[in-house]
Amino acid sequence: MIRLPDLLAGSLIAAGPGYMPERASSVAEGVDHVFGLLFWISAFFMVVIVGFTILFVIRYRARPSRTGPEASPDHSTRLEIFWSAIPLALVFVIFAASTKVYFAMVESDPGSAPQRVQVTGRRWSWWFDHAGGKGSKELHVVVGKPVELVLASTDVIHSLYVPEFRLKQDAVPGRFTRMVFTPTVAGSYPVLCTEYCGTNHSTMTSVVVVHPDQASFDAWAAEGKGGDETLLEVGVRVFGEKGCSACHSTDGSAGVGPSVKGIWGKEEKITTGATIRVDENYIRESIVKPGAKISAGYEDMMPPIPLDDREIQGIVAYIQSLKDGP
Ligand SMILES: [Cu+2]
Predict the structure, then answer these.
(1) Which domain holds residue 309?
(2) 195: in domain
(3) Number of structural domains, the chain?
(4) Blockwise average pLDDT, block size 10, the chain, 326 residues
(5) Are residues 101 and 10 in the same domain?
(6) How far is the CA of 307 from the centre of ligand 1 (A)?
(7) Domain membership flag for residue 69
(8) What is the CA(21)–ligand 1 centre distance, in A?
């Protein structure tokens, strides 16, 4: 049975098949309720306004007996107070309902000791530094454990969006923004960027993995800590993980940045007119200080992406392996 409060709260819409994504965080229900409230207020006024419009068009249409408009009072104080006070009250209700939900998204419960994750948005990938030191291109959290995301951007404004969590927060260069929630359903969900940030904005996606328990999270966090990967494997992994592939192809086609295929050992022109040779040191400098030497024909678009020495060695090994074709 559908009860009026549920109807107003929007649970009818939220439950509709395929209409809304699954609710997988502590804030999702509140957001859906605000959405439902706005939806039903809008639906009500649409019916009233369109209904009266149709009624008046018919009632007051031109007829042979009606040649001009009929006389009407120029105003009615009671009517004006009535149609000002009701919308004012409704706006306050919307304000109260949405502010309550908003605070739940930006302020953690005192004493809940949330797991803090540092989020970095950059053209065009996400990076998540988890508490305990594990960095990843995916966000990992544990069901039932409060999470606090602290977002930053190295270049332009990005926006982290997880539809199943009903959470969206901008990552703004030069400041930190926050987002607080508790995942409620184990599984993996898509992460999107919802702030148009340039050429590859639409591919700036990731996933959030909600682990069923702490043990599963710990097992993931311990992964890849051993040094048994070869340098080439490190390079291939880092190239994908750290978002290099968003701008650099490995098949020779130019993108936002030059392809890394066949550049090893090449003499290259840079924007100052000088010629450099692509070796380990040039590759290191290109990654650590991307603006230092700009390849001719390209713009200074590469974000600084912190890599440790082994990762840089891996990238060098990978670029060497791409010397003469795939
Ligand atoms: Cu973006």
Answers:
(1) 231-321
(2) yes
(3) 3
(4) 52 55 88 88 93 93 82 88 93 93 80 83 88 84 91 90 92 87 92 92 93 91 69 86 90 89 88 87 88 89 84 86 68
(5) yes
(6) 21
(7) no
(8) 22
